[in-house]
Amino acid sequence: MNGRSGGTDAETPLLEARDLHVEFNARGRRARAVDGVNLAVGRREIVALVGESGCGKTTLARTLLGLERPTSGEVRYDGAPLNYSSRALKAYRREVQLVLQDPMGSLNPRHTVYEAVAEGPRIHGMADEHERVVSALSRAGLRPPERFLQSYPHELSGGQRQRVVIAGALALDPGVLIADEPVASLDASVRGEILALLLRLRDELGLSALVVTHDLGLAWNIADRVAVMYLGRIVEAGPVEQILTSPSHPYTQALLSVLPESPEPVVLGGEPPDPTRIPGGCRFHPRCQVLASGAAAEAGVDGRCRSQLLDILPAAPSSGEAHVACHYAEATTPARS
User: Ranges for the ABC transporter domain (predicted)?
Assistant: First the structure.
């Protein structure tokens, strides 16, 4: 792996979103899918982006990959703003690779493993194709790689297919993997192996990763930092141990409550996130269990919850700090805001 210093210092995030906004026209209404996000992935760091379906995390991931153009704000790689010219995007997509959740859908059933992994190096005109394919398969845990070269996807297990997808990314020597629900389609017995592989790639190759997931348990097992997204914004972010053992935002608390070891699940009321109908005040307040219970009123912040906008959270790459966008948390635990 190269160090990807790019002339920048080691504290510069490798991948960063700065005040990112992405809007779409949805049936004549404006959908604010990403509504002001600061997010940073440091070097040799795994960040988990967590939230329920519809929160905007997939749109954010696509924008970080250069597949969507932001309405405002910017994506930066190695300290430089993303250039959207065709040539620049091609070079960028060698550096930032996507790993999807459905390996069967990602792989052409008519292509052998060799052809699947060689596709990226061919597109980018890279030399030593055979050596790259064999090395990538080996690093992805398919050993001996020669055993798999002429296999077809239907001849492999689900875990092996996901390793082929990862090998296809590794063949390009990327700096960052963006993994969208990388183990969601796998059996429980295989999930741990793929997560261990991602950790090993971080440790041995210096890879960074953004893991997009709805599963806070997965975040606990793999991430250095976690960012919790709700209705287009990061509402809580920080070191994974701090956020997941002592969450400040009611939404994070609700997500954690569905884990098996939690004493009592929090059932959220109201409507699921709708990016065409973002409420005033705290965007979570129509479903907030703290507001519904009267605890926010006791803290004297219920009016603010319903009417006062919250600041966009900073990216805080590798700073060790946690941040939360919540009037109640600010009133009761000011050190966390």
Answer: 15-256
Q: What is the CA radius of gyration of the chain?
A: 21
Q: How many residues does the chain have?
A: 337
Q: Residue 226 corresponds to which amino acid?
A: V
Q: Which amino acid is at 162?
A: Q
- Give the number of other Cβ atoms within 10 Å of residue 228's Cβ: 28
pLDDT, tens digit (0-9, with 9 covering 90-100), for 124-164: 999 999 999 999 999 999 999 999 999 999 999 999 999 99
Q: Please give the Cα distance from 80 to 174 (Å, whole number).
A: 16
* Inter-CA distances, 318 with 41, 161, 251, 323, Å: 8, 32, 23, 12
176 CB neighbour count, 10 Å cutoff = 24
Residue 275's identity, in one-letter code, is P
Residue 250 dihedral angles phi and psi, to the nearest 5°: -55, -30
Question: Over 70: is that where the pLDDT of 115 sits?
Answer: yes
Residue 214 C-alpha from the chain's centroid: 10
Q: What structural domains and CATH numbers belong to the chain? A: 15-330 (3.40.50.300)
State both tokens at 220: 């606990």
pLDDT at residue number 27:
82
Other CB atoms within 10 Å distance of the CB of residue 280: 10
Which residues 6+ apart lie within 8 Å of 295 measured at CB? 328
SS3 label, residue 15? strand
Question: CB of 309 within 8 A of CB of 327?
Answer: no
Identify the residue whose tokens are 């070097």.
43
